[in-house]
Amino acid sequence: MLTGVDCSPYVLEGRTPEAVVFPGSKDEVAAVLGVAADAGIPVIPWGGGTRLGLGSPPPRLGLVIGLTRLNRVIEHVPGDLTATVEAGITLGGLQAALGARGQWVSLDPPHAERATLGGILASNASGPRRHLYGTCRDLLIGLTVVGADGSIVRGGGKVVKNVAGYDLPKLFVGSHGTLGVIVETTFKLRPVPDEEQLVAIGFDRLKDCGAAARALLASDLIPSAIEMVDAVCAPTLGLAAGAPALVVGFDGIAEQVQWQLSELAGLVRPLGGRPPVSLPPATWTRLATVARDAVESPAAVMRFSVLPTQVAETMEQGAHAARQRGLSSAWAAHAGVGVVTGTLLAGGETAAVSAVLGDWRAIARAGSGHANLTRAPLAVKAQMPVWDDPDAAGRIMQRIKAQLDPNNVLNPGRFVTGI
After folding, report:
1. Residue 10 has what pLDDT?
2. Domains of the chain with CATH codes
3. Roughly what angle, to the nearest 10 degrees, separates helices 311-324 and 350-366?
4. Which residue ranges of the chain lie beneath pLDDT 50?
5. Helix, strand, or coil here: 23?
6. Considering only CA atoms, which of 129, 361, 342 is closest in space to residue 232?
7. Within 13 Å, how many C-alpha atoms sit on residue 323's CB side?
8. Residue 265: how many CA atoms within 13 Å on its side-chain side?
9. How far is Cα 386 from Cα 384, in angstroms, rounded to an integer?
């Protein structure tokens, strides 16, 4: 347990917690939550801290529960392709343990060496391979959480074929710690592929990248990732400056991968694509954060969800909106699934930054999408809501929160509609 100045590493949005505790088991998590609920103290679950910048400023930072001591592999059944682990284990640590048996969990969010499984689930974090393998919701088969009153709740199971009924575990994926503290998880696994290749295809224009991505989606090829980066982000991946690029990954049997690479080169050539350039394996880890890493001091980062067919157009419109207000930006996207990240370069006044973010959100809404602010200083968050308007879904989420956490103990005020 930490108090006073020892809590400084856990300062969040300028607020210092009253105490930080590190339980060593799910029963200790339950005991801590029971005490906090009785005392009316808000509780903030904390894994690796890699995604805590996402969210509205907390009205009060009461008790932080650090989960890094819950880091054991409870059970790995290679024959069933399943693993049950405590939520405080890092993704990198889990992949290393599974890799010794030729298996992996097909998740690749950023900062795998620090991000914990509980935090990844709570924020529904993902990376470029989500194009083929999906997100946490697609891989999770069992979950144990501690509720706001200290009760321990289990859902799902330890086998891929579970019984029919309400899929309770998926309710907690992406809930940002507002419904319960995740303490154990069971994932379905995959064999490590024989070969994996990542290539970049340069284009003269971003719209040509978009046309190539649409052609790839309509083809018979099965890429594991389809990423798009603008001319600002390209040098961060070691590509030529001044030219946008489409980055495509394939994995599987060696002969299959090589055939798909050959087909890809023929597919993009008529659309203005240059010959594919092989990228080193380390590039995979940079793809998920390339739009942020391309900027030394970002003023704000916004994440869009749009139709895959509108990715290139959204990136172009967003860059134009920033230039109209005298600001520069960097753009990247998981093009195959319509997830776009825009980063504003520092240099503008807070009012100008907020105005651009408002323009970006309007662009997303015009395409029937939405946009959330994933990183920004407090001054910007004071002018621009972090979360887009969820409409009717927000009312449903408020009712679920009221049922599972009626005293508003768990991570209050940080998620959609202030829950």
Report:
1. 96
2. 4-67 (3.30.43.10), 73-191 (3.30.465.10), 195-280 (3.30.70.3450), 290-381 (3.30.70.1130)
3. 150
4. none
5. coil
6. 342
7. 7
8. 11
9. 6
Residue identified by tokens 């970002």 is: 298
What values do phi and psi take at 343, rounded to 5? -120, 130
Note the pTM of the prediction, 2 decimals.
0.94
DSSP state of 157: -
Going by C-alpha positions, the residue among 129, 121, 250 that lies closest to residue 187 is 121
Q: What is the pLDDT of residue 162?
A: 58
Q: Are 329 and 347 in contact (CB under 8 A)?
A: no
Contact assessment for residue 252 and residue 193, using Cβ atoms and an 8 Å cutoff = yes
Q: How far apart are the C-alpha atoms of 275 and 285, rounded to whole Å?
A: 23
| 249: Cα within 13 Å, side-chain hemisphere | 28
Q: What is the DSSP letter of 119?
A: H
Element (H, E) at 118: helix 117-123
Neighbour count for residue 64 (Cβ, 10 Å): 26
Nearest-angstrom CA–CA distance, 275 and 99? 33
Closest CA to 338 of 213, 208, 200: 213
Rg (CA), the chain: 22
A 10 A CB-CB count for 240 gives 13
Spatial contact of 187 and 205, defined as CB atoms under 8 Å apart: no
**Amino acid identity at 56:** S
Note whether 269 and 251 are within 8 A (CB). Answer: no
Model confidence over 196-222: pLDDT tens digits?
A: 999 999 999 999 999 999 999 999 999
Residue 145 tokens, joined: 């959480």
| Cβ atoms 307, 367 nearer than 8 A | yes
What's the rounded Cα separation, in Å, for the pair 233 and 202?
12
User: Which residues share a beta bridge with 252?
Assistant: 195
Burial of 16 (0-12, 13-18, 19+ CB in 10 A): middle
Can you read off the two tokens belonging to residue 239? 């590509």
For 187-216, the three-class secondary structure string (H helix, E strand, C coil) is EECEECCCEEEEEEEECCCHHHHHHHHHHH
Q: What is the pLDDT of residue 57?
A: 92
Residue found by looking up tokens 């087909």 in the block = 263
Token duo for residue 85: 């682990």
Distance CA 55, CA 392 (A): 20
For residue 347, the model assigns a pLDDT of 82
In which element (H, E) is residue 402 found?
helix 392-404
Answer positive or negative: Cα dihedral of 8, 13, 19, 23.
negative
